[in-house]
Amino acid sequence: MGTNGIQALDLLHRKMCKEEGCAFQLLASAHGRHNSGHRGTTLLTAHALAVRAALDASLAATESTWTNASPTEALANATPYMQCFGHVVIA
């Protein structure tokens, strides 16, 4: 496992689970504030809604990863999770 793998484990375990997902909720809140202004702009509305749907899907994936799973099972796909999450954040 290299640096990316360790960063992925850190993201999925420490960052997303710390304080019951507070960091993820802050990200979602910031996204909502930022994109609320774009909803009135026809050209950006579809993009804002698509990014919000991806963010919601990421939250669902985060929650389902830890539901009834051992840490080994939950962290098995940490690298693809980080890659997906990175795309959502950049979008």
Question: What do you see in this structure?
Answer:
With 91 residues, the chain is mostly helical. The chain has one domain. It has 5 helices and no strands. Helix 1 (3-17) packs across helix 5, helix 2 packs antiparallel against helix 3 and helix 3 (42-66) runs antiparallel to helix 5. The longest helix has 25 residues, at 42-66.
Features:
single chain, 91 residues, mainly alpha, 5 helices, 0% strand, elongated, Acyl-CoA dehydrogenase C-terminal domain-containing protein, Acyl-CoA_dh-like_C_dom
Integer tally of domains: 1
Task: Give the strand tally.
Answer: 0
Estimate the helix proportion, in percent: over 70%
N- to C-terminal distance:
27 Å
Secondary-structure element sequence? HHHHH
Class of secondary structure makeup: mainly alpha
Largest sheet: none
Low-pLDDT parts are none
Oligomer description: single chain
The fraction of residues assigned to DSSP E strands is: under 5%
- What Rg, in angstroms, do the CA atoms define? 14 Å
Number of helical elements = 5
- What is the overall pLDDT average? 80
Shape: elongated
InterPro entries: Acyl-CoA_dh-like_C_dom
Organism: Noviherbaspirillum pedocola
Protein name: Acyl-CoA dehydrogenase C-terminal domain-containing protein
Pfam families: Acyl-CoA_dh_C
